[in-house]
Write a structure and sequence with these properties.
about 80 residues, mainly alpha, 3 helices, about 75% helix
């Protein structure tokens, strides 16, 4: 296998797993894991905003990486050409 293919596949898989994990960390209606972490780290209501912003940034970054690596794989290796 091509080293470029291996790097792209690893990046794609890691970003996909990370995307699932960080989407699950988001709070639904104030009951998510981010609120629990923010409540323990900061005892003020403003603390959860920082955690939510960071979760949003990380999630968006992982989504962009996942999407770009998927596009690269689709363009470089069309259906049936990976061997």
């Amino acid at each position: 296998m091509n080293p470029l293919l291996i790097i792209i596949l690893v990046l794609w898989a890691v970003s996909g797993v990370g995307l699932v994990i960080f989407v699950l960390l988001h709070s639904g209606k104030g009951t998510g894991l981010s609120d629990v972490i923010a409540g323990q780290m900061y005892n003020s209501p403003g603390g959860s905003g920082i955690v939510e912003k960071n979760l949003n940034r990380i999630t968006i970054t992982l989504a962009v990486i996942f999407f770009l690596t998927l596009l690269v794989l689709m363009i470089i290796y069309p259906q049936g050409t990976i061997s």
